[in-house]
Design a protein that fits this description.
The complex is a heterodimer. In chain A, strand 1 and strand 2 form a beta hairpin. Chain A is built from six helices and ten strands. By secondary structure, chain A is an alpha+beta fold. Chain B is mostly helical. In chain B, 67% of the residues lie in helices and 3% in strands. Classes of the chains: A alpha+beta, B mainly alpha. At the A-B interface, helix 2 and helix 3 of A face helix 2, helix 3 and helix 8 of B.
Amino acid sequence: MSNRSPSRSIFRPVNGVDQGIMEDNRKLIADINRRKLLRGTLSLGALTMLTGCSVSDTGPMQSVLRAISAFNDGVQELLFRPNHLAPTYSPEQVAKPPRFNASYEIEEVKPVNGQRWKLELSGLIDNKAPWTAEQIYKLPETEIIVRHICVEGWDYIGQWSGVSMADFLKRIGADTKAKYVSFKCADDYTETLDMATALHPQTILATKYAREPITDPFGFPLRLRTSTKLGFKNAKWITAMEVTNTYIPTFWSKQGFNWFSGI
Amino acid sequence: MTDNVTVKSTRRHLRQLHPAAVRTMHWINAGAIIALIGSGWKIYNDEVLFGWLHFPDWMTFGVWAQHGLQIHFTAMWVLMVNGLCYLAYGFYTGRFRRKLLPIWPGQVISDIKAALTFKLAHDDITRYNAVQKTLYAGIILVIVVQVVTGWIIWKPIQLSELTALVGGFQNGRLIHFLGMVAICLFLIIHVALALLVPKTIGAMITGGPAVPDASDSDPAPLLHPAE
């Protein structure tokens, strides 16, 4: 029975995300759910069968749900207001330290060596020379004090600064008519932004939090911070950036989270 | 010519208690609401508003949080599209006005008293008593508010003007949660009362008895005689 309850949150799991267990026991789990639901509720006819359908990672139900999620990506792209600024806050309201979010615990963060670290560039970019941390620190800074909203429902106000993504894309000669900007991270995390979001005035490649260099758990030396996406879209410990027209599924979207995840 | 008009007119003035359109929309709505509640509980469990309240996993839809989100963000379209059709139908055909209005506070209180002492008459299921009218009008309003706060939670930045109206993202979450509570309370009362008077359930499946149209207040102008 111990593997019947998934951990409360896959963003803060106790023992990592091993969906294999769920997959292996899918029939058993669905059966338990169905019996208990039937026992526990008034007869709602065919509606109860909703839980009998497997919404797990394979099967026709999952395909339908993912198709609608893709439809929702399109709706969100249409709703996106490129020049609409998120509300900003005063430095007194900033949470210190910021709240940690990743697919593993904060103790498991593997610090990045800032001396050896480089930002690799690829794709539709004129100047693909890699950047060192020192070079990035010298770029003009934009500061945003904005609300971080997690897909789970929590939020905090953070103060981030670093080079504006629009400036950086211009500086490296990126094709800003391309569709996506993709990121690879030191912890093998992957993330992709639509170009409209990348060019939003409140999207930055952050190097500082509350005017101090970002600390290890929060993405040292370089992370993404945008005011218009859910927390998990803000990739940390970025090591490579690609400008592309090819949609690349991301760490969370592969697991069924909505890709666009705009707020 | 006159005969023709009369025939059409008569047919119009008798209709089923719950026309097929209403029944269809009612059950689609019921399905969407159940899916939204079960998946909403899954989403809620990821970051609870109240430390003492977690929904047991067997009561929630989906295995992981992403499944809860997927179901919620699918069922929301069903609810919204169906709900818009229902509102348009209710206003256009005059059903809301005929069935739900007027609601007099005095009558609501006396009907509640009668209901609590099991003296509320329900022989005639074609006429809603004041308690029913209040519940049915109320739940429509609650669902409208629920859709608005749902949009606020989904798009707190793109709709930052709306978010500010409720005093911020977390207030939006709280109101959305309270709306869920209101819908659950409604469901308990609604289902309990329907089970007490089972012919109401039959009526929502088969259409129920034919009822006069109360044509004096019927705004549908298509077949009115040209005098």
